[in-house]
Design a protein that fits this description.
mainly beta; Nucleoside Triphosphate Pyrophosphohydrolase; 11 strands; disordered C terminus
Amino acid sequence: MPCILPPGLEGNLVEYVQGGEGGWLSFDQKRFYTNAFVIQDDKILLGLKKRGFGINKYNGFGGKVEPGETLIEAAMRELKEEAGIDAPLEHAGSLLFMTKGAGWAFQIEIFSAHSYSGTPTESDEMRPEWFSFASTASNADAKVPPIPYETMWDSDVYWLPLLVQGRKFVGRVDCVTQDDGEFAMTRHWFGTVILEKSARASH
């Protein structure tokens, strides 16, 4: 059954979760960014942002798409610059973030890989760390801490589980800026991509 998508989203989607209230914020342009994650076994590689936007939060590795770059080129460049590794990244999802008063939206394309080459290395911007997304009962390696949602963006708890499950997703988050400079979600919607039968059969 088709669902009504928030403005700015498109595709053959089924709703996964939504929340908040009020109308969706309007915007007149998108600015493209990437965010890349390496997933191995029951672990995911995140980076602690050391400066700039999102400082002291854990996130994937990424940033702005530069003129002349494709999305995948930008994702691979940012992963190399911020974590010192190369990986066979594949597109995993899309997120649209809108902040009240901005007039433009972050269009963040999410990439993931299940292998990499090199050694995760701290950079001027990010400190890579492994985290476990396994349940406590099945996590044999107690030295790997669980995903630190309390020090991540508020929306990550909704879509990161879809990423580690390998489910392609699309989402939108509207925010307002609080007095302390932090962002507070006012409305959110996340959905999973419905694969065509022919596409499913070929995998």
